[in-house]
Specification:
Elements lengths: L2 H5 L5 E3 L7 E3 L9 E4 L12 H6 L4 E4 L9 E3 L3 H12 L9 E5 L4 H14 L4 E4 L4 E3 L2 E3 L8 H13 L4 E5 L2 H5 L10 E4 L7 H4 L2 H13 L4 E4 L5 H5 L6 E5 L6 E8 L4 E7 L2 E7 L4 H16 L4 H10 L8 E2 L8 E5 L4 H12 L6 E5 L9 H12 L2 E4 L9 H12 L5 E4 L3 H10 L6 E5 L6 E4 L2 E4 L2 H15 L4
């Protein structure tokens, strides 16, 4: 697309001649010949500082907030991030207008809920596109992802691919960061769904009110909403918005409700009442929180016009989500290992209370907290683990640029408010080894915090660390040492 055509009918000022734009990039390392490089001012870095590197890599134009001394055409905008979003929509010819899109937001449960909706839609014969934390999917094709919600340039490219491949429904996780940073600019959601809201990401949002305000932006661009009646923040998210909605809940009166809930080690079953009838639901993922996730999925799918029997069948067929209440293979041992992404106080409490419902022995929790993130939640996480576990192994998560022992010290402020027994082992692999080698009959070892992640980030370097692989190797070592193999 010609640069002059790209900025046509916008408020942005074009300085210099005209060139053909082949791609739009915000990362100078990914720029190739014919690219437009967007100098975005971020939380930690200013893209203007990387303009020279982008030009040397082949950028033929720049999007800037102030003119730079480079001999290439430049688009000058007051807000380069907002301009990048608007220009990305135009470059990819507004793909969102060709698609039915569902957005799910909240602190916990987004990933599992999107997979539930995907399973239901596929049960109804639809081709589904999924955008989320673990991976992006078009039909049966998997595309790797770096963020819960891609940056606007990537998002518009993915949506264009989905439109061109005739996807019937797009289901996406919508993070608070993406809403605040205009990554989903140009996307109107047919349905917006809300899971819950608890403390998280205050390192970025600074206050809980800012966090809530960011989440609210999803419903400002949704034609319909499905809200958690048991979460007191639902009313605030819809306040002042003329958005029709359904509610779901267990404790509070709601349009969709669950009763006679039975939770086992491998699944959960319950009866559900909805505006279109009653059904018995069986979901092959355990935990009370997955009852809430399933009710949200039901509400979204009712709005999409799916019949209740197909909704029920889809939920019974949903595959376990990687790193979400995932039981690892412990063949030959008399204890269990559960892998989960829980990295917030509420997420950890939900996880551990669910495990306690089926654990016949101790609940042993191996966990830590990430560095360069919300520090206020660390002692809260520690206290939650202490109160809902029989034993804790406090370790490192992704320390990033922080001292791991300083993070652990913050966590222990909360752990020490409880009477739980614990050990501190900074090295996460050795912490897992300790839990496995000291496990007793019927124990459930919970590895919390990393879930689907396949790395550990230390000093800005991502080291390979897939806990499924780590556990398999450690169990194999234990077998060999005991002469089992």
């Amino acid at each position: 697309m010609l640069l002059s055509e790209l900025v046509k009918d916008t408020e942005y000022r074009l300085v210099g001649g005209d060139v053909d734009i082949k791609r739009i990039e915000f990362d100078s390392r990914r720029v190739t010949s014919g690219g437009l490089f967007c100098c975005v001012v971020g939380t930690f870095l200013d893209g203007h500082e990387f303009a020279g590197a982008a030009v040397s890599r082949g950028a033929v134009a720049l999007l800037v907030e102030h003119e730079l001394p480079f001999d290439v055409p430049q688009i000058v905008a007051a807000n380069s991030r907002r301009a990048m979003a608007e220009l990305s929509c135009k470059f990819y010819n507004y793909p969102a207008k060709e698609l039915r899109i569902v957005g799910i937001t909240g602190t916990n449960g987004k990933t599992t809920t999107t997979y539930m909706i995907k399973a239901i839609a596929e049960q109804c014969g639809l081709k589904v596109g999924l955008i989320g934390t673990i991976r992006n999917i078009i039909g049966n094709r998997v595309i790797s992802t770096q963020r819960t919600t891609p940056e606007c340039t990537e998002l518009q490219e993915i949506l264009r691919m989905m439109a061109d491949e005739h996807v019937d429904l797009v289901v996406m996780e919508v993070s608070s960061h993406s809403l605040d940073q205009e990554r989903v600019f140009g996307v109107e959601f047919e349905v917006g769904g809300f899971t819950n809201l608890t403390q998280d990401h205050l390192d970025y949002h600074k206050t809980f009110d800012n966090y809530l305000a960011a989440k609210k932006k999803l419903f400002e661009r949704s034609r319909f909403a499905v809200m958690n009646a048991d979460d007191g923040h639902s009313a605030a998210l819809l306040e002042g918005l003329d958005v029709p909605h359904l509610t779901y809940g267990i404790r509070e009166p709601a349009d969709i409700s669950a009763a006679d809930i039975e939770i086992c080690a491998k699944d959960v079953e319950f009866d559900i009442a909805t505006p279109i009838g009653y059904a018995h639901i069986a979901v092959p993922i355990p935990g009370l929180f997955n009852v809430f996730n399933a009710m949200l999925a039901v509400g979204v799918c009712i709005r999409l016009g799916f019949p209740l029997d197909s909704i029920s069948s889809g939920l019974s067929a949903v595959a376990g989500v990687s790193g979400r209440m995932e039981a690892l293979d412990t063949t030959g041992f008399n204890f269990s290992v559960i892998l989960d992404f829980a990295h917030t106080p509420d997420g950890l409490i939900n996880l551990l209370t669910s495990v306690r419902e089926f654990a016949r022995g101790r609940v042993v929790t191996v966990f830590g907290c990430g560095g360069d993130r919300d520090r206020a939640k660390r002692p809260i996480m520690g206290e939650a683990a202490g109160r809902y576990s029989d034993f804790c192994v406090v370790t490192s998560d992704n320390p990033r640029t922080e001292d791991p022992m300083r993070i652990i010290g913050n966590v222990l402020e909360g752990v020490n408010k409880t009477a739980v027994d614990y050990v501190v082992i900074e090295n996460r692999r050795e912490a897992i080894r300790y839990a496995l080698t000291h496990a007793k009959k019927n124990d459930v070892i919970v590895l919390a915090g990393k879930g689907h992640e396949t790395y550990q980030e230390i000093d800005n370097v991502k080291h390979p660390f897939d806990e499924k692989v780590v556990v398999a190797k450690l169990l194999d070592d234990i077998r060999r040492n005991k002469g089992i193999v």
